Structures are given as C-alpha cells and as structure tokens.
Amino acid sequence: MKKITLLFIAAIITISCAEKVKNSSLEELNTKKTILVTKIDSLNAALKSVEKEISKLDSDKNLQTVTALPVKNDVFRHFLEVQGVAQANKNIEISPELGGTVTAILVKEGQKVASGQLLIQLDDSSIRNSINELNTQLNLANTTFERQERLWKQKIGSEMQYLQLKTQKERLENNLSSLKTQARKMKITAPFSGTVDEIFPRLGELTNPQMPAVRLLNLDNVYVEADVTETYLPIIKQGIETVVHFTSINKEITSKISQVGNYINPANRSFKIRVNLDNKDQSIKPNLLADIKIVDFETKGIIIPSSLVQQDQNGNNYVFTVVAENNEQKVVKNIITVDNEYNHEVYVSAGLTANDTLVNAGARFVKEGDIVKISKN
Fold first, then answer.
1. Is residue 267 classed as helix, strand or coil in its secondary structure?
2. Which of the four pLDDT bands, split at 50, 70 and 90, describes residue 118?
3. In CATH, what number does 80-87+214-299 get?
4. What is the pTM of this model?
C-alpha cells in the first residue's frame, strides 16, 4: 500500500509539472504523454494486484449476506374453514297446555331447577271445585254400587239396575280423571333439570298455549351446526377432527364431526354438519358464532414457509438452498412440488429433504451458484 501511495504521489507531481509545459514543442509533449501513460498503466496494475490481495484476506467483503432456515419435517394439516352457530339440545320455551291466569310464579330468572319442579301455577279454582263436586258424587255412586253389588251377588235385584249403577260409577271416575288431568295442565313444570333463563308472563296476567311462559336451558352439552357447500361432500365424514373457535369468548375446543346431514339445501347447495361439545363451565351460549376448522388434508413431510417459494419462467416452483462447498456457502436452486398450502406454510412432496437448509432472508436477491455469507442473527 505504501508503494502504491508513492506512485500516486509521483503521478500527481508529474501531472502538476505537465501543466507547466504549455510552451513545449509537440515532440516533447508526445514524449511526456508516453511517459505518463506508462506510469498510469503501471499504477492500475499495482492497484489490481493490491485489490486481489485484499480479497484474499477478506473473502466475505463483497458477498451477499443471507439468513438460513432448516426445513421442517412435521405433520402438515390443511383445514376447511366454515362458520357455525352454537345450539343447545335442551333449550326450550315452555307454554301452558291450557289458558289461564297466572296465580303464582314459584321460581326466579337464573334459578336452577330440577326435572318436574313446579314453575308457574295457573288459576285452577273452577277445576278444583268441579273435582270436589265429582268426588262427592263419586263417593255416593261407590256406596250405592257396592250395596247393589252385594245384593246382586245374593241374586237380589235386577241385573239392569246393577249395570246402570256400575256405569254411573265408572263415568264419574272417568270424569274425575279428566278433571285431574286438566288441573295438572294448569301447572307449568320443568321437563328437565336446567336454568330458568326468562319468565314471560307476570303475576295476574292471562296466558294461553300460543304464548311461551318460561325459557328453560341446560347448557351442559351443546353443539355447533354449520352449512358446508356440496363440493366437500366426498371429504366431510363423521369422525373427522375439527377445531372450533369462539372468537367472542376466546375459547377453542378440539372435537370431531358427530353428524353429517343427508339433505342438500337447494337454496344454497349446502349440507349441514354437527359438532357436539362439552360445556361444563356453561361459557358457550346458544346462537354464539363459531369458526370451525375441519381437517381435509393431513400428512407428514417437508413443510416450509410459503413466502420462500418462487416461480421461474417455465412455471416451476423453486426455492434456494445453501450447501457447503470448498469452505464456502453456495446457493442451489431446488425445483419443488407443492401439494398443499395453509396458514402461510406449504407441504412439499418432492424437491427437498429433511437435511436441506433454505435461504431465508435475502432469497429474492440471490441466484443459483452465488457464494453467500450466512448471518447468524
């Protein structure tokens, strides 16, 4: 480097001196020009020699810096994503079987109740009066029939009289049973254990079978129902793994398809699927929206980021890998076969092995055969 510096200084001095030869002859100027050109050529040769020596001592100075990423050999899953709605099997609105005035509301909203527990009592005073009256008539009819039956067994009295009393007694019994059934229908009871979610009528209000009285829920077991386009009918089967995510409550559950519908809706060309879910914590509510991911492709193999896949002018997918060669890192172009893609990852069925290392950052700025420097950051 010192020699080169001295040569450059000499050249500058020579050029400076050349500025003073304005009055020299043409022959002298040509001679000086030849001398200067010779010196410049000598300096260029010396400069190239120094640069060559520098490149030997600092071989990485002008190399492209990239990062490396090992390929991943793991299970690749592709999911079909549909939106569903949570439902509960035991989610009903209970209506009275007969109309009547609400005389008693025996539960509160949010209260847990047992199966058969009385929830609302309707006015049944007229029915109870009729039952009391019939009980009186039935007692008399029973007494009269029993006496006539004893006489008939002794062959006393007519058969017709015996049969009339028996028929009268049985008619009163049937009427009484009918009134008791009507009285039971004036009571609104819980058909299963659950929670009273809403009570519709107020005390003293008139209700009828067309009006719901109580909403009763049991959320221990719920399910999600979704519509799937008929295109996926050959893929969607009972027992396929699913991931159900409820965005509103930030909850994710892994389950399986429990039922696949057999009817194609002509309006939207879809069929229904059902996924049963356990809901012991009661966090999933009816009509809650859910995102359902259904596994429609699963295999084990090479998985790489989709951002690293490039395409050449022939339409071939490829990635760059790095291999060690003569203590250098050389870029190699690998033509690959991409079979599936999901969530920014692709499954590669051919073109890569589990031991390959990909060019990650900087992959768009290198070409096949380049010698690169791998950054450890």
1. coil
2. very high
3. 2.40.30.170
4. 0.63
d(CA 202, CA 180): 25
369 token code pair: 């055969």
pLDDT at 256 over 50: yes
166-173: average pLDDT: 86
Residues 6+ apart with CB under 8 A from 100: 122, 123, 124, 186, 206, 207
pLDDT at 217: 93
**Residue 181: closest CA among 232, 240, 117, 134:** 134
Sign of the Cα pseudo-torsion (238, 288, 281, 213, in order): negative
* The amino acid at 231: T
pLDDT at 21: 46
User: Which residue pairs, CB below 8 angstroms and at least 24 apart, start in 7-11?
Assistant: 7/39, 7/42, 7/43, 7/46, 8/43, 10/39, 11/36, 11/39, 11/40, 11/43
Q: At what angle do helices 125-153 and 159-185 cross, to 10 degrees?
A: 160
**Of 277, 286, 259, 121, nearest to 194 (Cα)?**
286
Which CATH number is 64-76+300-375 given?
Answer: 2.40.420.20
Look up residue 360 and give its DSSP letter. Answer: -
CB neighbour burial string for 87-119, b if at least 16 within 10 angstroms, e if fewer: ebebbbebebbeebebeebebeeeeebeeeeeb
Tokens standing for 64? 């492209």
Q: Does the pLDDT of residue 284 top 50, yes or no?
A: yes
Query: pLDDT category, 163, cuts 50, 70, 90?
Result: confident
Instruction: Tell me if 279 sits within 8 A of 194, measured CB to CB.
Output: no
Give me the amino acid identity at 310: Q
- Distance between CA atoms of residues 235 and 314, nearest Å: 33
With b for 16 or more beta-carbon neighbours within 10 A and e for fewer, the 174-183 pattern comes to eebeebeebb
Kindly report each contact of residues 53-60 with a partner whose C-beta sits within 8 Å and lies 24 or more positions away, as own/partner.
60/373
Residue 210 structure tokens: 């067309």
Per-chain mean pLDDT for the chain: 85
Provide the token pair at 268. Answer: 């939207």
Mean pLDDT over 85-98 rounds to 92
Residue 113 has pLDDT above 90, yes or no: yes
Q: How many residues does the chain have?
A: 377
